[in-house]
Design brief:
alpha+beta, 329 residues, 11 helices, 15 strands, seven-stranded mixed beta sheet, single chain, Aminopeptidase, eight-stranded mixed beta sheet
Length: 329
């Protein structure tokens, strides 16, 4: 088996792997690799393990992120969104050994944010020094319209109907101005409630301009009052990357609830198999967002995260700094 990376990886072989691999997500596609390499504060590498016939056995797109200013030196990390595309134990072992060695002096830590069940690789990764953290998520099957409504809580369905009855409209973003209106609502949410750094505006504009998914926005009286940013893997799934709504200002329109429903309805109408909520927090902690998501009727899953710490002192300082920052804001 051989390791290749970046321009050495055949696009056609990569796309074929996406078609066949059970761990496929939009974030591991050539399109998202290019996207991450063409927006501010991001870069990405792709690594692939090929077999003796030159076919790709396993592959991973790893995005590199860091904060600006003084935080830069304590926040440089590698994120594997969705999880790697794995086929065999030997391929997985070679892939993870290589990326650890490659980033040893370049990053503070590497983390996989799994959208799938990687339990068959858990022992292998544990032996290689990766730690596993339980992490919850919801995935909602969207192929059966009757089941969608049946599994949703009755109060949640009433809220969906109420929002539409009271004048809220679901529309796809038609311009950068629509995207910026969504971003401004999201930015305020991150400043006041989530208290974590938000990706730059250029990231959201590039997502729109490169047609990598959909912005499903909630309008009321011609104004954006909420929405959801959704990566899509054609024929498979739609994902909740970012969501927001001016719920306190527009209580009768329920913008956050309608934004979630918009993605579910889009999946149903476009023959996608499921809607992925992209995370519901640690099972060890109370999490209001988890309660919000659960009432849409999806299946709760625990696919967790794997993390490999490359620089323990900087990792500890970075974690401490994030806690202090959240308390000060």
């Amino acid at each position: 088996m051989k390791i290749i990376r970046n321009k050495e990886v055949s696009i056609s072989s990569w796309q074929n792997l996406i078609e066949l691999n059970k761990f496929s997500s939009p974030f591991q596609t050539p399109e998202y690799f290019d996207f991450f390499n063409n927006v501010d504060d991001f870069s990405a590498d792709v690594f692939a393990v090929t077999d003796d016939h030159g076919e790709i056995d396993s592959l991973v797109v790893l995005t590199i992120q860091q904060e600006k200013g003084l935080k830069a030196g304590f926040s440089k990390r590698g994120i594997i969104y969705g999880g790697p595309l794995l086929t065999s134990n030997s391929g997985a072992e070679k892939l993870f050994q290589y990326i650890i060695e490659y980033y040893k002096q370049k990053l503070i830590y590497i983390e996989t944010r799994n959208f799938f069940d990687y339990s068959e690789y858990k022992i292998l990764l544990g032996k290689a020094g990766w730690s596993y953290t339980p992490w919850l998520n919801f995935q909602l099957q969207t192929e059966n319209p009757t089941a969608i409504k049946k599994n949703m809580s009755s109060s949640r369905w009433r809220q969906v109907k109420k929002g539409i009855k009271n004048g809220a409209e679901i529309k796809e973003a038609q311009s950068e101005d629509d995207v910026i209106a969504f971003y401004e609502i999201l930015l305020e949410l991150y400043k006041t409630k989530i208290k974590k750094p938000l990706l730059p505006k250029s990231f959201f504009k590039a997502f729109y301009n490169q047609s990598l998914g959909k912005y499903l926005l909630i309008f009321y009286e011609g104004k954006v009052i909420g929405g959801i940013m959704c990566p899509i893997l054609s024929g498979k799934a739609i994902y909740e990357f970012y969501i927001c709504g001016l719920d306190h200002k527009f209580r009768d329109q329920n913008p956050s609830i309608l934004a979630t429903w918009a993605a579910i309805d889009y999946a149903k109408e476009n023959s996608l198999k499921y809607f992925d909520f992209m995370g519901a927090g640690s099972p060890k902690e109370e999490y209001g967002v988890r309660d919000f998501k659960s009432r849409f009727g999806g299946n709760e899953v625990e696919h967790g995260r794997f993390i490999y710490i490359l620089n323990k002192p900087k990792y500890k300082i970075g974690k401490l700094g994030l806690k202090v920052l959240s308390k000060l804001k």
